[in-house]
Q: What sequence folds into this?
């Protein structure tokens, strides 16, 4: 096949690829976006049906376009986020080619060659925007042959998809808690395995937590702070948005468990860490209220006081006397949903810049290979990097870098 040549190739047509295209386009820099499926595919087929954004519409967006259907204080459904990105790409005339997968990327001469499903493409620069959450990660605890339906949260769509019976949800970040809550509301018996987590208040003193993260400078936090990148955040925009409260989940009938451990003879064991994980989550919650109060006092903000936000109900029985093992068959468990996160998947890139976990070495997305960039990865430059509005700023930075490289 003839070799197509582009100046900058952007791989991936999610929010990161579209933001990158927008910034390069604004600088008049030629480029092409290739996407293996459809624009914003993950928001369509790799999220559950009822998912809404974790942040309100005024926040979870690009700065120069509002959502068409959800008002600023609402939480756009996943399908609307996908539509938003499609309409954004159309409005800015992003040159996106869908249905094209990059199977291999290698250096050649002073640039790169991408082997795609529609032939090779040569590029001077490549921006890899294939997602912060690429390969669903399922810990190898329960063998596939154990007789339970086992799926990752990326494969979960709705309660009707699961076999009859109780459901064990492992992982209590935003995905795990929302899925557990939905299953309980659908009348399922639900067990939820809870690891360490942050659980900021949804709203405090009249402001959404994304607003507080902004004014407190926490969106700009760098991953260099030890341990920060690894703690999952439990937040929810479901039903208008509410604080994730494990006591309320227990009161609704969900049985909370510690971290899932060894499985033997149909019995899954759980670490004795549930009370500690809940307490650390509480400490994070109360710490955020303290930081917000201190900020409001310092800045003289006239925000309504909310002392009741500090009142926590007593720990439920499942926390004070936790189950340390569960016979899954006896408990009637038909399905296990692993809301246990993702791993990177850059096996198709032929460069020696990946660490043992498969993450590329880079500085703010600029890799060690001249002309090779990464965008949209968790903590690429700061906490906001993998989120819709944060990736926008990282894309602007990389576009500036590409422009400077061109001038040089
Ligand atoms: C359950 C869940 C809820 C989330 N909710 C929010 C939220 O409310 N607000 C928020 O700001 N963020 C949220 N995020 C985080 C983040 O915004 C999303 O993960 C978002 O999809 C990331 O966009 P992206 O463009 O970086 O990557 P992706 O959306 O993953 O896009 C990457 C694209 O690259 C394509 N691709 C991959 N490999 C290739 C290849 N080799 N060749 C061609 N194309 C390829 C994929 O098909 C995909 O379309 C959520 C994440 C999850 C998992």
A:
């Amino acid at each position: 096949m003839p070799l197509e040549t582009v100046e900058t190739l952007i791989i991936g047509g999610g929010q990161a690829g579209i933001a990158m295209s927008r910034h390069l386009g604004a600088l008049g820099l030629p480029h092409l976006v290739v996407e293996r499926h459809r624009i914003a595919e993950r928001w369509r087929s790799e999220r559950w049906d009822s998912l809404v954004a974790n942040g309100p519409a005024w926040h979870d967006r690009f700065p120069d376009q509002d959502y068409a259907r959800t008002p600023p204080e609402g939480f756009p459904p996943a399908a609307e986020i996908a539509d938003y990105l499609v309409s954004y790409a159309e409005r800015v005339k992003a040159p996106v080619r869908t249905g094209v997968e990059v199977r291999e990327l290698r250096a050649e001469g002073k640039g790169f060659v991408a082997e795609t499903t529609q032939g090779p493409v040569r590029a001077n620069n490549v921006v890899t925007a294939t997602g912060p959450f690429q390969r669903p990660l399922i810990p190898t605890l329960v063998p596939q042959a154990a007789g339970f339906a086992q799926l990752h949260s990326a494969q979960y769509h709705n309660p009707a998809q699961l076999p009859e019976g109780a459901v064990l949800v492992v992982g209590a970040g935003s995905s795990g808690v929302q899925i557990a809550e939905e299953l309980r509301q659908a009348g399922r018996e639900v067990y939820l395995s809870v690891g360490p987590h942050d659980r900021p208040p949804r709203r405090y003193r009249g402001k959404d937590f994304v607003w507080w993260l902004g004014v407190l400078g926490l969106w700009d936090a760098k991953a260099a702070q030890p341990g920060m990148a690894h703690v999952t955040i439990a937040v929810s925009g479901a039903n208008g948005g509410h604080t994730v409260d494990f006591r309320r989940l227990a009161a609704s009938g969900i049985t909370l468990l510690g971290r899932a451990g060894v499985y033997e003879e149909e019995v899954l064991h759980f670490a004795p860490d549930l009370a500690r994980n809940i307490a650390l989550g509480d400490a994070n919650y109360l710490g955020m209220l303290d930081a917000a109060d201190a900020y409001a006092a310092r800045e003289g903000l006239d925000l309504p006081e909310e002392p009741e936000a500090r009142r926590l109900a007593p720990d439920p029985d499942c926390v004070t006397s936790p189950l340390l093992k569960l016979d899954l068959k006896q408990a009637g468990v038909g399905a296990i949903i692993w809301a246990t996160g993702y791993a990177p998947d850059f096996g198709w890139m032929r460069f020696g810049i990946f660490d043992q976990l498969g993450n590329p070495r880079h500085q703010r997305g600029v890799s060690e290979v001249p002309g090779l960039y990464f965008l949209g990865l968790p903590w690429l430059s700061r906490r906001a990097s993998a989120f819709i509005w944060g990736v926008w700023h990282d894309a602007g930075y990389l576009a500036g870098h590409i422009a400077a490289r061109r001038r040089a």
